[in-house]
Write a structure and sequence with these properties.
Number of helices: 13
Strand content: 15-25%
Distance between the termini: 32 Å
Largest sheet: 5 strands, parallel
Radius of gyration: 22 Å
Number of strands: 14
Oligomer: single chain
Bound molecules: 5'-O-(N-(L-cysteinyl)-sulfamoyl)adenosine, zinc ion
Mean pLDDT: 96
Shape: globular
Low-confidence stretches: none
Structural class: alpha/beta
Length: about 400
Amino acid sequence: MRAWPTVPVPSLARLGDAAVPQVHDTARGGPVPSVAPGSPQGSARLYVCGITPYDATHLGHAATYLAFDLLNRAWRDAGLTVTYVQNVTDVDDPLLERADRDGEDWRDLAEREIERFRGDMTALRVLPPDHYVGAVESIPLVVEAVQRLAEAGTAYDVDGDWYFSVHADPAFGAVSGMDEDTMPAVFAERGGDPDRAGKKHPLDCLLWRAERPGEPSWPSPWGPGRPGWHIECSAIAAHHLGTAFDVQGGGSDLVFPHHEMSASEAHVMQPSGPFAHAYVHAGMVGYDGEKMSKSRGNLVFVSRLREQGLDPRHLRLALLAHHYRADWEWFDSELDVAASRLARWQAALPGTDLVTAERLVAEVRAALADDLDAPRALAALDAWAAEPGTGDGSGKTLVRDLVDARLGVDL
Ligand code: 5CA
Ligand code: ZN
């Protein structure tokens, strides 16, 4: 599937490479190097769970994709060649339900919302993935993955639907660290079916859903049907990135069951190594006191703000003012705060000398190397702008390049 256009990223290499950042790994519960010790020299591999395109991109989605854009930019500034894969869940229950509710063809709905997402990501100057991959176009990969799980004796049939025995992976539970007693309720809340009769274990997850009347289906060795959710990401990531890629990312609502189960499926499919080296999760953005979610309907859409004439740089700065791992609530006033911040930075540029600019590069790089601490990077820039210099402007280009390369904001 086509991604969206890229934007040029200025190089800061004249000051040497930045440090490879540390990130918080959910599985180990602490900071780890963002690149696996065994990764091929000079490269980094990232998989981020993409949208289910049944509604427009809201600020929670945007914040999550910006978090991984910070990581992508940090890796590039460290001189690494990045391979970035993102999926699109372009066939799944919520999409089919919405299309049904609105009397629309599910393919038209998905296509329209994917195109809107591309426009939002382009406006926000989020660097595109190298491989933007839809579930539908990946069905042969999914079929192959299910076949491998079946050959390993870890998949079974319940009235034509195929399930994965999650405990076939000895590491099941290690991503989330969640208590097995807590898992069934969370599983049920997030698309799972712990109570379905005929399953060998309540936590076993759906791999292949046999065709139902009125639902789209594709051929498979087990008859027509469509992919389950978790296997979509295991199959796409394994195919495009191989084993032990560096970072598996998404919002914290995906820790369990999604990332837990896709990792376990991948561990059985390719026993030669772990699925990912680190599992990195962005916090949940709320609005009106609750998590912003399509099902709750308390949404602020990026596209609506754009239609209202928003300067996307303001939105980018407003989102970056919150640490990516924090849960936080959106207030409309944050755009004004961001606008005045941008204006102060712009006003400080002409009086900046090279020594000041180089110091600022070091401060911003250090902040972002420490678990992508964008609020600390913003604070360093605020401190610089609070004392406008009377320098010769020799550092102006470097500061502009810094803010552009690392924060994605074109001053
Ligand atoms: N297609 C699946 C992933 S394979 C999915 O979760 N799609 S989604 O459209 O529901 O979410 C897209 C991304 O935005 C996911 O990484 C999700 O974790 C993240 N996300 C969803 N809601 C929020 C929120 N309120 N705050 C922050 N991130 C969010
Ligand atoms: Zn996913």
